[in-house]
Structures are given as structure tokens and as C-alpha cells.
Specification:
There is one protein chain. The protein is α+β, with helices and mostly antiparallel strands. It has a domain of 131 residues: Four Helix Bundle (Hemerythrin (Met), subunit A). Strands 3, 4, 5, 6, 7, 10 and 11 form a seven-stranded mixed sheet that branches.
């Protein structure tokens, strides 16, 4: 069975689970009708199935490479990228003023996830460009917007982000790249950046780098950082990609996975750049791109998990091993209870993560369409959850996929292990999942838990309202929201941030567990209203009965504080 984009699942979630109808009722997104949404998802699914999915193995077996200073991409990637660009998929949510479709972020999120399931290595390229488009839309001058945005949106040019340096990883404030005014409105940017996804390619006319650097006399730390747009080729008088800029790809990293995606070490030697946003406002401008990318990376995890699930399911339906203990079975390993457990876990986790991601995108769209602070707070609160839970789910599901394959799972020819290798980095880049949890229990609870409480109230109210339809499931979800509220209130009460950070990861996982149950419940109720008890009801029952109880243990962990962690001295970690 080859990859098939989960078009119907996205359509069902948008229409029945996450409130997409509220988005389409706004003036801004009124053109995103049900018919148009279905057409967009169907066409994107066709691109994923027919064009991108065949590139998955090619990118792994024929990695991107650096030859005489030129990045060579895997066979077929140029054609795959052109199909993405010519289809307008880079600019689904971009401003129509500069050639974008202006459609909801919910649609971009669905499309990005399906592309990630088809071929994660190539999908990472337009994701980076989409983040740059959003940063320029919010922070660039009108002249920069007019020159760069049409070319980025059309896919004629590609975009990257350059944050990390050898001595400055998550501690961005330690960067040493400098930018010096040249007296003509441009700046000379000098320094080295590492881990630059799609730092170069051999199929786009230009690659535009957003680079964090420090101006002369700027204060130390993140407050002194500015953001610069530094293109590979300088625009000529007609706006076309002209002379080469003073930058180069020094090397490409040899990675665990994502072999088709070149991860570059970039060197800037007085390269010409343009300031984006205000001086020393670089972090604010870059976070516009990073927040976009964190949602995108979350769905990369979900997409890779979907690919792994489909491959595992195909194997389970084909592999004959052992004696079936059920009547009228298939005669293959899907008859075995443990294999059935693994496949159900994979599917249930993916539905939960997909729903949370689309809910975050819907909140983003509502914030943009209405300007209401509550929607903005909802989107901000959900972003670290999407990023961490989505990528954790992708890693978990991909690992289970290897297990379903048994011994063949570690044989590279099957392609099962590639999903696990490719997705692993998603829990690390765009802010590690540990940093996402710190953001959740730190910045995102600085409102005293108002955004979290609003979400808990919504879940609890809904569970209460459907007790007559799905009583047992509704009761379990309602009870879980009460336990979650207690955990959230404990977090808010902690003035010692170390105590919060010590429990950040389990708290984030617990919140995601309950959210996942809520969305499964909504799916079950929607299917019940349609007059049946099909796969969605059965999957919701599996998730709520078997996986939701994990939230209680996670919250016990989350509320344990930091004392026992720091009771372990450095010497106690030594190997004796």
C-alpha cells in the first residue's frame, strides 16, 4: 500500500471537531467555503500521493550533497519542488496583495501535514519559506515586501532562518555574528551559522536568509539582537537574482535522518543584508517566523507518524505469523491482540495530535479575522503543545511502526525505519520540546492561567453537555478536566520557576492527553449524530478508556517540584 494523504480525516476534523465553521463565517475568510476547502484538500492530497510520496525513499537513498560549493539535491526533488511552487502551495495563507491565496492557516496546516507524511525532507523547504513570508509581512519595509514577497510566495525564491551558532544553540543571546552599517542603508553581515535547514538548493533562483546578528554597540544578550535579510544573490535593478553575495555553504551535516534535506553550515563574510524590523528588535521579528514554524513542525511530526502508520498497517495486513485466536480473522498479524493494540494506539494518537494542531490553526485564524485577544491567547497557549505533542506523537508512532514490522522494521529496504529516523529531529529543532514545556508553564501561564482555564472550561462544559449521548466517555473526560484544572492551578501558584520547569514536560503531556480526549469525544458525538457507531466512536473509546488515564500519573509528576531533582548533586550522576 502506497501513501495516501488523510484528506477525509482533515475534512472531518475541520467540519466536526475544531470549529472551522467559525473561521469561514468571518468576513476575512468567507471565501473559504466548504466546497473550496474540500477542493483544496483533495488537490493537495493528489499532489502528495502522486508526486511527493515517490520521493520519500529517493531522498533517503540519494542524499543531498555538496559538490564544489554547490548543493545537489536528490533526483526528483527539483520536479517535486516545482509542483509545490506551481500549485501555489507555498502561499496558501499568504497575503493576496503579493500573490498569496489568503486562505486560513487551518488549510495550510492540513496541507503541510499531508506533505510531511508524503516526504518530510522536501516539505521542510516550503515550511521555511512560509515562516519567512510571515515574518516579512509583519516586519519588513514596503520596499522589501514588494521585492521579495511575490518571489517567495510563488516559490521562485526560497527562504531560511539562521539563528544557531556553534556556541549559541538554544541560548540565542550568546550569538557573535555581527552586522555593520555600510552607509547606504545596507549592512555587512559576518559570522557563521549552523543547522540551517535547506541552506541552499539547485532548483530555486535564489535563497533568502533571515539572519540574527548584533549591530556595533548593541547590548549583550537577546535584547541586542537585530534581524537581517541576506540573499544568496543580490537583486539587480530589475529585481531579479543577480550577483552572488558574500556567503557560502561551508559543509552539509551528516544526519540521523532527513537525508534528502540539506542542513548547512553557512559562512557570511561581509555579506550584504537589509535590516528587518527595528534595530535590536530581531527576536520579536524572528519569533513571528518561529511561531509559524513551531505549528508547522508539530504537523511534520504528525505527518511522519501518518506515513509510518500506513506502512505498518499495510505490513500487518500482509504478514502471516502465528495462529489467530479470533473467528473470521484475516490470517495475518493484525489478528493478534498486541498488534491490534499497537495499530489502535498509532491511529488514536495521530487523531488527537491532528485535532490539537488544527484547533491551534483555527485559533490563529480567528485571531487574525477578529482581532480578539482571547483567540490570540488561545493560539499562543496551544502552540507549544502542538509542537511538543505533535512531534512526540510522531516519534512514538514511528517507533511503534518499526515494532509492528518486527525484524523487518530494522531492515532499511522496508522503509519503516526511515520514518523514525526522519522524525526524530522534530522534537529538537524550532525549540526543543523541553523548551516548549518551559514556555507553556512559564510565559503561557503569566496570565494567571486565564487562557488555560478558558480551554478547560470549554472542555468541561462540552463533556457535561453530551452526557446523554456518550455518558461514560463524557464522564471520564469531565473528570479529567477537573484533575487538569487542579494541576494548572498548582503550576500557577508556584513562584519558584524551577519548580514549574521541573514539571513542565509532564504537565504539557497531561494537558495534551486531556485535549486529545476532548477532541476524540467530539468526534464520537459527531459520528453518533450521523446515525451510527463507526470507527471514530470505537477509536474514541480506545483513547479515552486506555490512554486518557495517563494524565493522572503525569500530573502527579508535574506537581512534584524540583527539590528531589536538585537533591542529586553533580557527583551523584557519576558512573561508579
Amino acid at each position: 500500500m502506497s501513501f495516501r494523504a488523510p484528506v477525509s480525516d482533515h475534512g472531518f476534523i475541520l467540519n466536526n471537531v475544531v470549529g472551522y465553521d467559525e473561521v469561514t463565517r468571518t468576513e476575512r475568510f468567507s471565501e473559504a467555503t466548504e466546497d473550496l476547502t474540500a477542493a483544496i484538500l483533495t488537490e493537495a492530497g493528489r499532489l502528495c500521493d502522486d508526486v511527493l510520496a515517490p520521493l520519500q525513499r529517493k531522498g533517503d537513498e540519494d542524499p543531498a550533497r555538496l559538490e564544489n560549493g554547490i548543493v545537489r539535491t536528490p533526483e526528483g526533488f527539483a520536479e517535486g519542488y516545482r509542483a509545490i511552487a506551481e500549485g501555489g502551495w507555498v502561499g496558501v495563507s499568504a497575503d493576496p496583495t503579493h500573490g498569496g491565496m489568503g486562505l486560513p492557516m487551518a488549510l495550510t496546516t492540513a496541507v503541510n501535514e499531508m506533505m510531511s507524511g508524503a516526504c518530510l525532507s522536501i516539505q521542510l523547504n516550503p515550511l521555511m519559506t512560509q515562516g519567512q513570508i510571515e515574518a516579512l509581512e509583519h516586519h519588513a519595509s514596503d520596499e522589501i515586501k514588494a521585492l521579495y514577497l511575490p518571489k517567495l510566495i510563488s516559490g521562485q525564491w526560497c527562504g531560511t532562518m539562521n539563528l544557531t551558532e556553534p556556541q549559541a544553540g538554544s541560548d540565542v543571546g550568546a550569538l557573535s555574528t555581527k552586522a555593520e552599517p555600510k552607509g547606504d542603508g545596507t549592512y555587512a553581515v559576518t559570522g557563521q551559522k549552523i543547522y540551517i535547514s535547506w541552506g541552499d538548493n539547485d532548483f530555486s533562483e535564489n535563497v533568502c536568509h533571515l539572519v540574527l546578528a548584533r549591530l556595533p554597540g548593541a547590548p549583550a544578550g537577546t535584547k541586542g539582537i537585530s534581524l537581517f535579510l541576506v540573499p544568496k544573490r543580490l537583486p539587480d535593478e530589475n529585481g531579479a537574482a543577480g550577483a552572488a553575495n558574500s556567503l557560502e555553504v561551508v559543509s552539509l551535516e551528516h544526519k540521523l535522518g532527513l537525508h534528502g534535506s540539506p542542513t548547512a553550515v553557512m559562512q557570511y563574510d561581509g555579506a550584504t543584508g537589509w535590516l528587518i524590523g527595528e534595530e535590536q528588535g530581531g527576536m520579536a521579528a524572528m519569533f513571528t517566523m518561529m511561531n509559524n514554524a513551531r505549528l508547522g513542525v508539530g504537523v511534520q511530526g504528525i505527518g511522519a507518524g501518518e506515513g509510518a502508520y500506513q506502512k505498518a498497517l499495510a505490513h500487518a495486513l500482509d504478514r502471516k505469523q502465528g495462529r489467530s485466536l479470533i473467528e473470521n480473522g484475516t490470517g495475518t498479524i493484525i489478528d493478534h491482540a498486541d498488534v491490534r493494540r499497537m495499530l489502535a494506539t498509532m491511529r488514536a494518537e495521530l487523531f488527537a495530535a491532528r485535532s490539537i494542531a488544527l484547533a491551534c490553526a483555527v485559533a490563529t485564524d480567528m485571531s487574525r479575522a477578529t482581532g480578539e485577544a482571547d483567540w490570540s491567547a488561545r493560539a499562543a497557549f496551544l502552540t507549544p503543545i502542538v509542537k511538543a505533542f505533535g512531534t512526540d506523537a510522531g516519534i512514538k508512532v514511528s517507533e511503534i511502526g518499526v515494532q509492528v514490522h518486527g525484524g523487518m522494521g530494522v531492515i532499511e529496504e522496508t522503509g519503516a525505519a526511515q520514518f523514525s529516523r526522519d522524525v526524530r529531529v522534530t522534537a529538537i529543532y524550532e525549540g526543543t520540546n523541553g523548551i516548549q514545556s518551559m514556555d507553556l508553564v512559564g510565559r503561557k501561564l503569566m496570565d494567571g492561567g486565564e487562557a488555560a482555564s478558558a480551554l478547560i472550561d470549554e472542555m468541561q462544559s462540552y463533556a457535561e453537555s453530551v452526557r446523554g449521548t456518550r455518558p461514560k466517555m463524557a464522564e471520564l473526560v469531565w473528570t479529567a478536566t477537573e484533575t487538569l484544572r487542579e494541576g494548572m492551578e498548582w503550576m500557577v501558584s508556584q513562584t519558584d520557576m524551577n519548580a514549574r520547569f521541573a514539571g513542565g514536560v509532564p504537565f504539557l503531556k497531561a494537558f495534551a492527553r486531556v485535549l486529545g480526549a476532548y477532541y476524540h469525544l467530539r468526534a464520537a458525538v459527531a459520528e453518533t449524530a450521523e446515525g451510527g457507531e463507526g470507527a471514530r466512536v470505537k477509536l474514541a473509546r480506545f483513547y479515552i478508556y486506555r490512554l486518557l488515564p495517563e494524565h493522572e500519573a503525569l500530573l502527579v509528576h508535574a506537581k512534584s517540584g524540583a527539590d528531589d531533582l536538585f537533591a542529586l548533586g553533580v557527583e551523584d550522576f557519576a558512573v561508579s
